[in-house]
Amino acid sequence: MNLRIDLQSTIPVYRQIVDGLRILLVNGKLNPGDTLPPVRRLALDLGVHFNTVAEAYRTLGEEGWLQIERRSGARVLPRTAPDRVAPEAAEGFQRRLRELVAEVQAHGFARGKIARELRRLAETLERT
Amino acid sequence: MNLRIDLQSTIPVYRQIVDGLRILLVNGKLNPGDTLPPVRRLALDLGVHFNTVAEAYRTLGEEGWLQIERRSGARVLPRTAPDRVAPEAAEGFQRRLRELVAEVQAHGFARGKIARELRRLAETLERT
DNA sequence: TCTATTGTACACTGTATATGTACAGAGTAC
DNA sequence: GTACTCTGTACATATACAGTGTACAATAGA
C-alpha cells in the first residue's frame, strides 16, 4: 500500500487518502478483486483514526470504486467508466489545472520546468 | 475583473478568490500599480461577504502580491520571484498534478483528452 | 475639520474534520 | 450451533475553519 499522507497539510486527511487511492486505482496499481487493508490497519500505518480511513473508503465506495462489507472489508470493483462526462467537469478541470499552475508559478517555478512536467505527464497518460 | 466563483463548491470561497486572482497576477492580467476593487465592491459582484474578500486580499498580501492599506485599498506590487524554490514544492506539484488527473480520469475523461489539455497548457506557458 | 470610503477586529454561527466509544454483522474454531 | 473475533457502522463529541454581522480605525479629499 504505497500511500503517504501529510498531517500538516491543509488538505483534510480523508481526502488525501481518497486522492492517493484513486491514483492507484486509475493507474491499475489496484485492480478489481484486490482487497484493501482493514480500516484499523491502514489507520495505524498512516497514524490517523480508523474512522478517518473508513470515511475515505466510503467516499470511494460512493464513487463506485469499492465494494465495502462488514467482515469481508473493502474490495476493488470492476468499474465501468461513467457513461457520459459531465460537461461542466471539463471546464472545471481546465480551471483547476490553471489554478495549480499559477500557484506553482507564484512559488517561483520556471514556466519551462512546469511545461516539461505537464508534457511528461501527458506522455505517461498516452503510453498506458 | 474577470473572476468567477462557485458557491456550491467544497473549495472555500476565499481560496477560490485567491486562486482566481493569482492566475490573473501570474499571467500579467493584473500588473504592478493596478488597483483591485474595494472589498465591498468585489464582494457585491461575487455575492459574498466583504470580509471573505478581505481574507483573500490578505492572503495575497502575505504572499507578496498586494500592498493593502486603509482608504487606498489593494494595489498590485512589483513582485520579485522567490529567491529559491522549496525543494519539496516540486514533489508536491507533481503529486497534486497526478491527483487532479486521476480525479478527472475517474470522472470518465479519456486519457487522450487529458493529455491534449496538458500539452495545450504547456504550450501556452512557453509562448508567454 | 468633517465626511465618506477604505480595510480591520472580533464575536458569533454553521459546517467540516477527526476522534472516542459502543454497536452490528459475518466468518471461524470448536 | 455457540462463542469469539474481526470487520465496517453509527453517533456523540471536541475542535478548527469558513462565512457573516457589526463596530471600529485610518486616511484622502471637500
From the structure above, extract its key features.
homodimer; 128 residues; mainly alpha; two-stranded antiparallel ribbon; 2 strands; 56% helix; globular; DNA-binding
Compute the number of strand runs of chain A: 2
**Spatial strand arrangement across the major sheet of chain A:** 1-2
**Cα Rg of chain A:** 17 Å
Largest sheet of chain A: 2 strands, antiparallel
Helix/strand/pairing category of chain A? mainly alpha
Secondary structure: helix percent of chain A: 55-70%
What is the general shape of chain A?
globular
Spell out the helices and strands of chain A N to C: HHHEEHH
SSE topology:
Two copies of one chain form a homodimer.
Chain A: H1 13-26, H2 39-46, H3 50-62, E1 66-69, E2 73-76, H4 87-106, H5 111-127
Antiparallel strand pairs in A: 1-2
Helix pairs in contact in A: 1-3, 2-3
Chain B binds a DNA duplex (30 and 30 nucleotides) through residues 10, 12-14, 38-40, 48-52, 54-55, 57-58, 68-74.
Note down, in words, how this protein is organized.
2 copies of one chain form a homodimer. Helices cover 56% and strands 6% of the residues of chain A. Chain A is built from 5 helices and 2 strands; from the N terminus they run αααββαα. In chain A, strand 1 and strand 2 (73-76) form a beta hairpin. In chain A, helix 1 (13-26) packs across helix 3 and helix 2 packs across helix 3. The first copy, chain A, is globular. The model of chain A has no long low-confidence stretch (mean pLDDT 93). The interface between A and B is large, with 47 and 47 residues. Chain B binds a DNA duplex (30 and 30 nucleotides) through residues 10, 12-14, 38-40, 48-52, 54-55, 57-58, 68-74.
